[in-house]
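Why this split exists: single-chain examples teach little about how molecules sit against one another. For that reason, every record in the complexes split bundles all components of an assembly together and asks for one structure covering all of them. Below is a record exactly as it appears in the raw files.
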Amino acid sequence: NAGVTQTPKFRVLKTGQSMTLLCAQDMNHEYMYWYRQDPGMGLRLIHYSVGEGTTAKGEVPDGYNVSRLKKQNFLLGLESAAPSQTSVYFCASSYNGPTRDFGPGTRLTVL
Amino acid sequence: AQSVTQPDIHITVSEGASLELRCNYSYGATPYLFWYVQSPGQGLQLLLKYFSGDTLVQGIKGFEAEFKRSQSSFNLRKPSVHWSDAAEYFCAVAHSTGGGNKLTFGTGTQLKVEL
C-alpha cells in the first residue's frame, strides 16, 4: 500500500500561472480532502469530496477548484496563482470517519 | 463553531524529561479529539484519538492523552522524551464520527528536544 501520494512535491509558479496538484490513494477511501498549511495557522480545509463525482467547499475555497472523476484521485487546481497561495498543500483521505490519512505534502511557491 | 487552542507555540525539553502539550477545545456537544504529529518535511501522522469510553487513551510512540470534559482539555503526555520526538504536534476536534465532517486543527506546538 502506497497510502496517500501527492504529485509534485515542490513547485514554483509565477503570478497568474495555473497548475494542478494530484492526490492519489489506494485504500479505497470514500472521502478525500485538500488542506493548506501556513505558519501559525495550522491546517485549513480548502475543498473536500464525499465520494466519486462529488466536491464541496471547505473553509478557504477561493482561488481553487477541485475534481474527483475517479474514486482514487482528487485534483486541486489553481487557475491563476497568487502569492497568497504560497503554502504547503496536504491531501488526506478517510474511509468512514474523522480520522485522516495524510499525504507527504506539496510545497508551492508563487512569485 | 468548534475551535481548538494550543497555547504553547514552542516547547523545549531535555531528552529523558517528561512532556505535556496542552490542548483546549470549544464545542458544545461530545467532541471527538485527535493528536497528530508532523516531522519536518513530512505529512501528519495520527498519534491517538478519543471518541468515547476511557478518558485516558494510549497512542503510538509511548504517547497518551487524557480527556477532561470539565476543563475542555485533551492534553498530550509522554513520561520520557526521546530526541526523535522533536516535531510539530497538532490537536484536532471533530463533531461527529462521519467522514465528511469538519476536522478543526489547532495551530500546532513545535517541540524541540535538547540532548
